[in-house]
Amino acid sequence: MDTPPQPSLPAATRRSPGALNPFRAQSRQRLLRADLLTVLAWASVAGAAALWLADGGATGFSTPAGSLTALGIVAGLTGMDLVVLMLLLAARLPFIDRTVGHDRALQYHRQLGKPALYLLLAHGVLLAVGDGMAEGLDPLSELAALWAVVPDMWLAIVSIGLFIAVVVSSVVAVRRRFPYEFWYAVHLLTYAAVLTAIPHQFSVGGLFAEGTWQRWYWLALCIGTGAALLHYRVLEPIIATFRHQLRVRRVVPEAPGVVSIEMTGRHLNELAGSGGRFFIWRFLAPGQWWHPHPFSLSAEPVRFDAAGAGMLRITVRNLGRGSARLVALRPGTKVAVEGPYGLFNTASRSRGKVVMIGAGIGITPLRALLEGTPFSPGNATVLLRGHSDSELYLGDEILDLCRRRGATLFHLTGARAAGGHSWMPESAVRAGHRLTSYAPDIADSDVYICGPTAWAGNVIRAARSAGVRQDQLHYERFDW
Amino acid sequence: MRIRAAISAALASAGILLVGWQSGTHVAVTGSSAVGTSAGTSGAKGSNETTSGSSGSSGPASSSGSGSVGAAAKAAGTYAGSVVRTRYGTVQVQITVKAGAITDVTALKLTDAERKSVQISSRAAPLLRTEVIRAQSANVQTISGATVTSEAYLGSLQAAIDAANL
Questions:
Q1: Among A462, A473, A398, which Cα is nearest to A429's?
Q2: pLDDT at A11
């Protein structure tokens, strides 16, 4: 009953029994770095509490009011530490990007949002109650007294209001799918929230008073985080933009609503191997220079000459308001660029074999990956999913690459299966096919997945149940 | 691998907390001895404070010792400043004047509402004393992390300087 699916293009040679794995060392190092980051993150949270313990804070637990105050202080310290971790995760630090990738880093960033907010809220409430009890005031009068009397406290109270506003509106923005710009503006408020929170940490409570080593640690933490953000989110993009001098060369229609944008620039040899990774592009044309677009390269950078002049290409679908204008971009338009980011390239390989699964416009980064990532003939499988053949964007190029490099290619076209739990078209589900029908060695392969979130979730589940481990799974989402 | 990360993270965190706690108990011991001495001094000066009878943040400055107020300006002697109340406790300082110059500043009372305040004020007071003797006025920077104590200290000091007619 389980008829094997017919590949659109079978591999040129049969699989050679898995010999050496050239990516073993790379993968082990990456996992080691990931573990190191985990340990550092937890240690920093423990460190925040230890700062206070080292200052003799534990003696506060001798009275009920003191206990509340003590808990409030610990909540504030650990909450601020989580905020710092969130900022670092969003700072696009190369070390974090090379280790967990941009997508995963932002996922951790989002996961920390609520705990951080709860800790900061607890900090405010516990201190208002604890200090109030010590002075015989109700929490609200205590808050009013703190606002009026203690220097910098009014800023701290403003700060917590801002934090609440940021987290609540982020959650709403994610649910309601507000435009990216709204979400971006809200996130700028975070900087205001953090900055207004800092003065009271140093001037109130005395933990970070002048002359203490705790003050130096906390200063280093705050300044280091600020410097990292400034460097990697502001300075590096400006440097990259001036270094590469990108200009639109031409806009090529690929399919209805889908175009490839080719850009020429300098020093593009430095970007070799970043095919499949994404950049944040700003096309410096009237009315859209302020609109950042996260798009992956759909081909390896092309080199024109020895000096590094060359060409980059992205392939985009008319997804949002901003993307619609991209179709009309004029040749010669200057392009500001940030990146490359993400792990959707050879740097995340851990096995000799590779399976690439893409749907819709998510096929295009796979096209770049297929071009550059090393594999022996027969060790790669490419699965493309779309409603029809015309939706398999860059399909001709992929067919050609598969032919030249000896990869097995499957086209999975047709209406999606009922129920929405399968990543395959209805026909394939009916035929009883599974992921392993297409890629029998998937459990010993790197699996690259790119496509809409819900679909990608289905692929990930199928891959996991086929025995693929988390560290073999590489995916990037397009709707962030 | 994830297990390795979890175990290492747990061990590292526990270690850091333990080190913090250990050095914290050390601080707490010295901290409480500091409370002892400061309580002792304030006890000894207690009579002084009550006889001067000044209270409230804007209370009149009272002088004590051999220096007489007003006419005998720039005379040698000690002058107590006003008692300044803060939410962390009351503050009062006394200056020693010789030949029209402030030669010493003694804290008669420092913020001591909680153990924390004692720590803060015992850190700030020596710094303020040095600054005041150098500047010969109450016009010095407050100590960050001890703003309330500093402001009260300098407020009381100004009253003492006024009383000494410097």
A1: A462
A2: 65
Identify the domain containing residue A235 by its residue range: 24-239
Give the count of domains, chain A. Answer: 3
Inter-chain contact A39–B116, Cβ cutoff 8 Å?
Answer: no
> Which residues of A fall within a CB distance of 8 Å from B114?
66, 134
CB contact under 8 A, A50 and B114: no
ipTM of the shown complex: 0.77
Model's pTM, two decimal places? 0.76
pLDDT band at B26 (very low <50, low <70, confident <90, very high): low
Based on the fold, state whether residues A262 and A391 are members of the same structural domain.
no
Mean pLDDT of chain A: 86
Residues A420 and A281 grouped into a single domain: no
Q: Tokens 């670092």 correspond to what residue?
A: A88
Residue A174 — pLDDT band, cuts 50, 70, 90? low
- The alpha carbons of chain A give a radius of gyration, in whole angstroms, of 26
- Length of chain A in residues, anyone? 480
**Helical H runs in B45-58?**
46-52
Tell me the chain B residues in contact with residue A47 when contact means C-beta distances shorter than 8 Å.
16, 20
Return d(Cα A298, Cα B137) in angstroms, integer. Answer: 71
Please report which residue ranges of chain B form alpha helices under DSSP H. 2-44, 46-52, 115-135, 147-164
Query: What mean pLDDT is reported for chain B?
Result: 70
What is the tens place of the pLDDT at every residue in A75-98? 999 999 999 999 999 999 999 999
Is the model's pLDDT at A127 over the cut of 60?
yes
Say yes or no: A50 and A99 in one domain.
yes
In a domain, A3, yes or no: no
**Same domain for A91 and A229?**
yes
Contacts with A135 from chain B: Cβ below 8 Å: 87
Backbone angles phi, psi at A358, to 5 degrees: -135, 155
Q: Is A475 exposed, middle or buried (0-12, 13-18, 19+ CB in 10 A)?
A: buried
Does residue A1 belong to any structural domain of this protein?
A: no
**Domain annotation covers residue A2:** no
